[in-house]
Design a protein that fits this description.
The protein has helices spanning 5-15, 18-23, 69-77, 81-91, 104-129, 136-145, 150-155, 167-172, 178-183, 248-253; strands spanning 29-31, 34-37, 49-52, 57-60, 66-68, 159-161, 187-189, 195-197, 202-208, 214-221, 230-232. It is α+β, with helices and mostly antiparallel strands and 256 residues long. It folds into two domains: 5-102, Zinc finger, CHC2-typedomain (DNA Primase, Chain A), CATH 3.90.580.10; 107-253, DNA primase DNAg catalytic core, N-terminal domain. The termini are far apart. The structure holds zinc ion.
Length: 256
Amino acid sequence: MAGTWDELIQDIKSRLDIVDVVSEQVVLKKRGNSYWGLCPFHKDKNPSFCVTPSMGIYKCFSCGEGGDAIKLIMKTKNMEFREVIEELAEKFGLEVPKTHKSDGSSRELKEQMLNATAIAAEIYHDLLLREKADNAQDALKYLSKRGIGSDIIKKFHLGVAPKGFSTLYDELRKDFSNDVLEKAGLILKSEKGGYIDRFRSRLIIPIRNENGQYVAFGARALESGQTPKYINSSDSLIYNKSKILYGLDTDLAEQH
Ligand SMILES: [Zn+2]
């Protein structure tokens, strides 16, 4: 008996190993919790293509390409999302529900929002961990005052949003439409008519859903006098505040 299309996608995702999928095309070397290799999307001389199995995503820190295993297959084989799912369903011997065509657009939007959020989490984390952001030191100082060291930073994938207006947007616009990024709560319309990052000059605490997918962010001010002290992603297609249990983010959000 076939389940729903969402169940099929979940099932396929749980069977896909991002490292296996990437390894079909890229030689990967393990470094810490990640794997690195030469990017298949641009002429890469030093390995700048990073695969993070715990998050199920890849990201190139040179050309900005990023996504999950399904997106990699879509990009490299030039296939539509639905085609990839159908092909993988056949490979894994899973039944494809017949009713999947009606809600195709919202499902793809949801997938893209999840992808964008996971990559945003990776970018924010990298900016903090490798101290690439202008304010990484401020964030690390704040965390260390709260007794939070690199083990917790890595475990919760904490990150930092730099002071600039479009650090994240400049990265993500290469891969995602404004519509996806705005609906995922990552960017805002600026008064001048363009888009700017929603989170600026803030410590970033990614929020996961019950499947371990990154769906939202909590963001704490890093500058004195910056208001509000704590902001949180709004509810969206992928994030329902009332359904998510808070952990570290509430602790870091305290007003002192
Ligand atoms: Zn690249």
